[in-house]
Amino acid sequence: FDRHEAHECFFLLTNLLSEKSSALNCDSSIIDPGNDYRRHMSGGSLIISDLDKDQDTGVYQCTAVNTWGAVLSRRASLRFAYLDNFKSQADRSAVHVREGQGVVLLCGPPVNSGELTYAWIFNEYPRFVQQDSRRFISQETGNLYVAKVERSDVGNYTCVVNNTVTGDKVLSSPTPLVLRTDGVMGEYEPKIEVHFPESVPAAKESAVRLECFALGNPVPEISWRRTSGVPFPSKVKMKNSNAVLEIPNFQQEDAGTYECVAENWRGKNAARGRLSFHAKPHWLLTMVDTALSVEANLFWECKANGKPKPSYSWLKNGLFLLSPQGRIQIENGALSIAALNLSDSGMYQCVAENKHGFIYSSAQLMVLASPPSFSKSPLKALLKARTGSEVTLECKPEAWPPAISLWKKGNEILQRAERMTLLPNGTLRIANATRQDAGSYTCVAKNQFGTASTTGKLLITEPTRITMRPTNTEIIVGESAVLPCQIASDPALDVSFSWAFNGQLIDFQRDGNHFERVGGSVSGDLMIRNIQLSHGGKYVCLIDTDVESLSTSAILVVKGPPGPPDKVTVEEITDSTAQLSWTPGRDNGSPITGYIIQARTPFTVGWQAVDTVPEVINGNLLTATVVGLNAWVEYEFRVVARNTVGLGEPSPASTKTRTEDSIPDTAPTDVGGGGGTKSELVITWEPVPEELQNGDGFGYIIAFRPLGLVTWTRAAISTPGIGRYVFRNDTIPAFSPFEVKVGAYNNRGEGPFSSIATVYSAEEVPSVAPKRVRTRSVSAVQIEVIWEALPALPERVLGYEVVYWEDDTKPDTVGKVRISGNYTVVNITGLKASTVYYLSVAAFNTAGPGPQSVPINSTTKEPPPDRAPHNIQWTMIGSTLSLHWDPVIAMETESKVTGYLVSNHYNDVTALFTNKTAVELTLNANSNYLIQVKAMSEGGEGVGSEPIHIHKLNTAALNSFSSSSSHQSMCQALHAVNSSIL
């Protein structure tokens, strides 16, 4: 349907249904949208408005036409759903029945089209009859079936018919159901009133619905089975107390005989029918577009499968072909046309159909007639061939019917010869070509419509020879190599080189980091840089010329460090050893000469080499025992292989494995102590690292005794991270020597003790406070404290401690200064100006400070002026710099100015004090100067002036000049100086 430029053709029709009829009849008509206001075309679409049942009902087909022919669309059926009223609305006759008897109430639906559904009203709307094992409404006939009438069934029954397409609904007249008075119906065996036909055709993938209902007393039970005994698949559903059997998506395996059985205790009855599988046609074989020359014969065949077996018909350009018609023969799905002529060209369709549907297959037949033409397949202007090769010259003119060909060399017509063959298809073949075969060749083609020719020149060249080949090479990873590939060839040939690596062409642009082709037109050498292990393999040099292809190859073996071993397994482990096994990795071209084992624990930084047995593991071993491990530590192991090239990549880590526990074998270190408070013996040590604790339940045993005694006192601590123990006893003499040792233990037992250390018990604080404490206010931020050294005391004095604070009503210490040794003076700095401080002195030792002296107070001096000297004037004569400035006047809250400090901050810091406002300085011509002036007072140094920068002077250019503190005048004054003065 999608032929060249064919118009789109489909229908926008309501409720399209597949048409089952076989072909258009003679009453078919052409729709002319131009003369029909209700029908118009949009592209290939037919749009019908104001639908009319009488005028528009029917079968529609569309024809698509272009210059190549016409094709007919599939058929579409347009039908209208409707539902008439019941013919008579008069009351229906009453149905008289005895209690216990079965009854059938007929619906008799009116004339209709479209799918219907049925229901019954009992007495009045909306009281509908409910279906159960005793009552059933057939959706095939609309009838109401009551298996056994009860007194409650007496009443009026109205049949309701609903059209599911239109939604219309009509009601019949009521049918009265009346009980007879001549007694009750006795029990009787089932009588099947509703059953399906003996043969039911079912289309593939359709939904099949079978009904079965029986009258009887007692009410019969309905069951279903397949006579073949095959159980129902899960898709089969039973509904309405088994009165309805539904099979969705019907397939061929669902076909067979189905039996409905109605049974009560008085007997049973059965009805059966066969479901046969039907399917609409589908193509097995279709024809394809075909181009043939005039006078040729056409044979097309199409085959379809379906059930029932489909029939076939053929159309040409939308019209049915009738057979026989002389040259045209039709037999089922085969079409043959003898001796084609131009009028046979067109569009052909094969139609396969059965009662379930029809399918179309379309193809184009082109009947061609033309003189020979070499426009699409001329001979090459220049054809090259190697001496001794076989030359094939093809003559392939386009001609309908096929042309007859002959060959000429120059002006001489060629005949069959010993080395020359003329094939039936027009090809000229020359075996074992020589230089004498070179020349101009012409193929001449002819048919009844004309003649054409094509000419080409044949050049015979000498064979190409490979003069230098690559050789098998071994190389170390990271090095570079050149694989040679050089040739000698005929100058008339175009030559190209390429290289393949392990069967894949090398892309020099993509892989340029490693591969480069070097050499000229007769050299295709391959340079490989920074060779990696992946570059090992077979390299093939490919030489292509106009007439032949050659190749030469070599194997490149790349040697590198071994690949990583694998499957490192801990076979057996103790408290200090682990037996390992592994599998070797690739040797990468060089045999493995040995292995190194590395280990890692939570306590190590990275991987570390471990000791093994044997000490040196050669390349043939795949097991070893690691020794010197710590007990009760989780280890991971890995193996590194080595060969003559170097160490390879490490293996994956083994599974984490913990060594067995054992008695501690490491004693605590750095045992010492001392200090503490009165009656205490303080013992300290460096805790044993976790990796050396050798098991759970780790702790320490502390043993101590007075110096000179034999018996040890022991104590235990169960906290592994503790490194301090304090023994308290009022009988311990102050600063008395003890021998101390510390050991370790865990759940397995006690380990070794450390070496014995001498530790002194706590001493008592000095018992006397320093006397004759004096202070001197040095500046606004500093106070000097002086005291008298203590005489010899029973307690040691290691130094003195000065505490100070501001508010005597709140003597919490503001600051504290300690000085070790026998010093008796200290400066306290960082204080606030004009502030009263209270100070006290105490002696101290390892037990702490002793009693404090009586507090005394001291006031810091007023702060220095917060203004710098200004209006600095200076004069420089030779190397003498004269400075003059305005005095700084102190405020009432500031300490008085006592003089000025002139300092140079370049090189060595020097300062000159003066109580005047002027000074003279002698400068060194080879030095740099940064000169600053500060006011001095009892409160300390004031703020510095803006600095004066003087760089190295050129003594030969020194002249007299003066300047103020102005930057502009200063720069002008220093114009004669080589270096800037800022």
From TrEMBL:
SMART domains referenced in this protein's UniProt entry, alphabetically: FN3 (SM00060), IG (SM00409), IGc2 (SM00408)
Keywords on record: Cell adhesion, Cell membrane, Disulfide bond, Glycoprotein, GPI-anchor, Immunoglobulin domain, Lipoprotein, Membrane, Repeat, Signal
Subcellular localization(s) per the UniProt record: Cell membrane
Protein name: Contactin 3b
Record membrane topology: Lipid-anchor; GPI-anchor
Annotated Pfam families: fn3, I-set, Ig_3
Domain Ig-like as annotated: residue spans: 84-172, 190-276, 281-366, 372-461, 463-551
Subunit structure: Interacts with PTPRG.
Family: Belongs to the immunoglobulin superfamily. Contactin family.
Species of provenance: Takifugu rubripes (Japanese pufferfish)
Residue ranges of domain Fibronectin type-III in the record: 564-662, 667-764, 769-863, 868-958
UniProt-listed GO biological process terms: axon guidance; brain development
GO molecular function, one term: cell-cell adhesion mediator activity
Cellular component GO terms held in the UniProt record: axon; plasma membrane; side of membrane
Region of interest (Disordered), ranges: 648-676
